[in-house]
Specification:
The protein is 30% helix and 36% strand. By secondary structure, it is an alpha+beta fold.
């Protein structure tokens, strides 16, 4: 689990105890064997905290399994992107009694996506500044001309 940067957890709703079944030490820094919902909430990035808590609360109250992506802040101050897959466990009456989840560190994926967006922005800036036209022909026979005007080429 360490190499995959996966974190398995269980939250007992009645006792408000979070237990980490698997936890990669290097992810958010050292954690105690268990904690509370406020402990977890406090690790969330301030810009993501309210929305993450709201989505989780609403899904849990309605008994719906859910997935979330959010940022968390390590004890070192480093920001991580996490993908959380949550299963809501219910009693016989259908009332949520516990959550079980798996968190995957998706920081590298998010950084790659940011790098692609930055590269696309640089290319767009180059194209905007270019005094010459740039043609682009894709595999479907669509001809592109800067600034992104496309016309089909008759076959």
């Amino acid at each position: 689990a360490e190499a995959a940067r996966v974190w398995a957890w269980v939250w007992d709703i009645a006792s408000d105890r979070l237990h980490w079944a698997i936890y990669p030490e290097g992810l958010l820094g050292p954690l105690p064997a268990s904690g509370t919902w406020p402990d977890f909430r406090d690790m969330l990035h301030p810009e993501d905290r309210d929305a993450t808590v709201r989505v989780c609360r609403e899904a849990t109250e309605s008994g719906q399994d859910h997935e979330l992506e959010y940022r968390a802040i390590a004890s070192s101050g480093k920001v991580f992107w996490l993908h959380d897959v949550v299963h809501v466990v219910k009693d016989e009456a259908g009332k949520p009694i516990c959550l079980r989840g798996v968190i995957v560190d998706i920081t590298a994926r998010k950084q790659s996506q940011d790098a692609v967006r930055a590269s696309e922005a640089r290319l767009a800036a180059i194209m905007d500044a270019s005094p010459t036209g740039i043609f682009r022909l894709d595999l479907e026979g669509l001809l592109g001309w800067h600034p992104y005007r496309s016309h089909s080429i008759p076959r």
